[in-house]
Specification:
Oligomer: single chain
Order of helices and strands: HH
Number of strands: 0
C-alpha cells in the first residue's frame, strides 16, 4: 500500500487485526547470519504511477483485513 512498512510491522498488525495467537519477535538482519549483506532500510511500499490504469493499493490495515478474511 501507500505507507512504508517492515515485515515485522506487517506481522504485528496481522496478529492484532486477526486476533491471532503467538508472539512476533523482532530480529535484526545481523542476527540472522545471512551470507549476503542486507540494506539498512528495506521498507516495503507500493507506488502507483499517475496516468496508469493500475488502481492504488488500499491502506495496509485494510489490505491485511482483506487477506485475513480470505483465509
Amino acid at each position: 500500500g501507500p505507507e512504508a512498512t517492515t515485515w515485522h510491522d506487517l506481522l504485528v498488525r496481522a496478529k492484532q487485526l486477526g486476533g491471532l495467537p503467538g508472539e512476533v519477535i523482532e530480529q535484526k538482519a545481523e542476527e540472522l547470519a545471512r551470507p549476503a549483506p542486507r540494506p539498512a532500510n528495506s521498507a516495503l511500499t507500493s507506488v502507483v504511477l499517475p496516468g496508469t490504469e493500475v488502481p492504488p493499493m488500499p491502506p495496509l490495515d485494510e489490505a491485511i483485513g482483506r487477506v485475513l478474511a480470505d483465509v
